[in-house]
Amino acid sequence: MEVEVKLRLADSASHQKLSDLLKPFHLITHLQENVFFDGASAELSSKLAILRLRFYNSDSRCVVSLKAKAVLVDGVSRVEEDEEDIDPAIGRACVAEPWRLGSVDSSRILRRVREEFQVADNNFVCLGGFRNVRTVFDWKDLKLELDETQYDFGTCYEIEGLQVCHFPVEEAAIVNKAMRRE
What we know:
Layout: E1 4-8, H1 12-22, E2 26-39, E3 50-56, E4 61-73, E5 76-86, H2 88-96, H3 108-116, E6 124-139, E7 142-151, E8 154-162, H4 173-179
Antiparallel strand pairs: 1-8, 2-3, 2-6, 3-4, 4-5, 6-7, 7-8
């Protein structure tokens, strides 16, 4: 099971400090564009589900993902996530004309959305999206993703750690240091 923990960073200075500390462990940097969709009658959002197309480095890759069955207990969210690659040209066509999501038969996830959430074939709507720069690091066998996310209303900074069940508590000082305002 994959476990993710996302921590919001205080500001751009904290983001830069953490980036500098992790620089020796840099793997790759992705320029991402995330676009979200729902059914015209809120078939997904009414069931706490999210449909997203994520484009990497312009149009070199497109991933469709469905996050569903969200449960929030004591401030901890658990979400089922299903992802698969689709042709970036198909993804761009769906962003331009969301109804096209209903006719993409090559995607197992989009078939699932139509069947499980009963979104009619031509009944998808675009909810908008955001862009971010994701820098990936391999630190002590832990995959860390440092994000700078551009929203219409401002910029958000966060770090995400995968497989944090193996994250040594004594090593958390690097993250904590970067999160503090100094």
